[in-house]
Amino acid sequence: MEVTVTKSEGITTVVLEGRLDTPASPEVSAKLEPVVQDASGTIILDCGKLTYISSSGLRIFLSVRKAAAAAGGNVIVKSICPDIRNVFMMTGFLNLFQIED
Amino acid sequence: MKAREALSKVFVQKSARAGLMLVLVAAFTLEATSIVQFVFSQRTIKEEATTKAESQLDATKLKILDIVDQAETAVRNSAWLAQWALEVPDSLYAVSRRILETNPIIVGSTVALVPGYDSKRPLYSPYCFRAHGSDKIDVSSLATEEYDYPSQEWFTKPLELGVGYWSEPYVDVGGGNILMTTYSLPILDRNGRKAAVLTADISLDWLTDMVGGIKVYPQAFSMMISREGRIMVCPTESLVMKYTVNEAASSLGDSALFSDLNRSMLSGERGNQTFKYKKTKMHVFFAPVEKTGWSMSIMIPDSEIFGNVRKMGLIVKILQLLGILMLIIILRAVIMNQIKYNELNDRKKVMENELQIARSIQMAMIPKIFPPFPDRKDLDMTATIVPAKEVGGDLYDFYIRDEKLFFCIGDVSGKGIPASLVMAVTRSMFRTLSTHEDDPARIVSLMNDSMADVNENNMFVTFFLGVLDLTTGQMRYCNAGHNAPVMLTDTKWLLPVVSNLPIGVLKGFEFEGQETVMNDDDAIFLYTDGLSEAENSQHELFGEKRIYDVLGTRRSSADHMEAIKEAVSEFVGDAPQSDDLTMLFIHYFRRRHLTLENDIKEIARLAEFLDQIGNDRSLDQGLVSSLNLALEEAATNVIMYAYPKETAGALDIDAVLGKDFLEFTLTDGGVPFDPTAAPEADITLGVEERGIGGLGIFLVRNIMDSVVYTRKDGKNILKMTKKI
Question: Domains of chain A (ranges plus CATH)?
Answer without folding.
Answer: 2-100 (3.30.750.24)
